[in-house]
Amino acid sequence: MITERAETAPRGPLGMNSYQWTVLLAAWLGWGFDVFDGLLFNYVAPNCVPTLLHIPLGTPAAKAASQYWTGVLTSVLLLSWAAGGVLFGRVADRIGRTKTLLLTMLLYAAGTAACAFAPNISVLLLCRIVGGLGIGGEWAAGAAMVAEVVPEKRRVEAGALLYTSAPVGLFLATWVVHEIARVLMPGHPELSWRYIFLCGLIPAAVALLVRLWVREPERWRSAAERAAHPRLSELFSGPTRWLTLSGFLPAVTVLVTWWSCNAFIPGVATGLAQETAQALGLDKLHTSALAEDWKQIATNAFNWGGLLGTLLTIPAAKLLGRRPMFAVYFVLSAAALFLTFGPPLAPLTRLHGYFFIGLTVFGVFGAFTYYLPELFPTRLRATGAGFCYNIGRVVASIGPFLVGSIAAQGAHSILQTLFWIGVVPLLGLCLLPWVMETRGRALTD
Questions:
Q1: pLDDT category, 8, cuts 50, 70, 90?
Q2: Does 291 have pLDDT greater than 70?
Q3: What does the DSSP 8-state code read for residue 433?
Q4: Measuring CA to CA, which residue among 253, 275, 329, 268 is closest to residue 301?
Q5: Alpha-carbon span 212 to 325, nearest angstrom
Q6: Would you tell me which CATH number, out of the four given (3.30.2420.10, 3.40.50.300, 3.30.300.160, 1.20.1250.20), belongs to the domain 14-213+235-434?
Q7: Which pTM value belongs to this model?
Q8: Which helix (H) or strand (E) holds 325?
Q9: How far apart, in Å, are the Cα atoms of 320 and each of 162, 305, 323?
């Protein structure tokens, strides 16, 4: 059986052996399906919510209920995501990365699939909380595991490759929803959303791969044998306090910006489509079709930009360093938002602007999979990374509550809001002097 430190094992791409690539693949699949499960609800809410509330689909009451409950359930997901990140980050430092990865994948798979059987909104809310705990917890275990297994000189590449699964997960969610709701079950919107949620079980099969082929990193096993169990309070005391601050400041900046941009994609596309349809004199059916097409254009642009932006963090981090890289991405994020939502642009031009928003706002996330593990020693690595990466979701959870009320005021209000969201990365830029540079620094035990 291949071991992670088999020096004589054949080396493949990036100088990594087959076991190291297996670990990266397991974490990649875990995070990709994490994102896939987490965002399925956003696509099915217009049919799911009215059905559970016994409101006829397509009515003004159904639209209002969908907007309200989408905000509530997304905010609840973010809060449970944050709780899961903090809780399972500590669990990963206590019982191991592999065991925690397996546990969290099974948890979010079960929570998402259970949504398919929800008889009412209250049960759906409970299922989302369960799924959110697993979704939040998976990232810290996977990121720590990859950082500790791959060669030191390839940590940046492996970390960025790990995060490319996020846009892939979004693409997969979009495809699954399209195939089930619009191809297989186009005449059954009140039922198709349940089958979409059932697809959340797919990660359970991936968990089997983790169970069979991935072992605990030797670095963690060695530290666990000789070190005391981690305590959350350690993140806020002594020298570790600066490490926590260094991870939290850029993470909260990016989280607030990303969730604001992503949450408004349906509202921007729908609003612009309605204005265009009205100008062209299109009927209700063609207006709805145009809105769906434009949602897909904006979502795909955002995801493709995010995929490329994630990969670009590799040369940026290695050539510039971590802190200058964050500075570049923050400046470009603000520019992308100001230029996309400020000037008077043609609707399709504005939608294609989501590519540059994805390139910057989405792409910078690829840095956290290697930057946060670099900050903390092995015995605190998952605890610290999980806290920094996820606690910002508590702040970000306020946003979805506001989406419905802003969207109800029309596309112009949404565009104005997104324009001013561009200030957030500029505020993050001002906080970078308190962020530690880790370029060239080996993982500490």
A1: very low
A2: yes
A3: G
A4: 268
A5: 37
A6: 1.20.1250.20
A7: 0.89
A8: helix 322-341
A9: 21, 21, 8
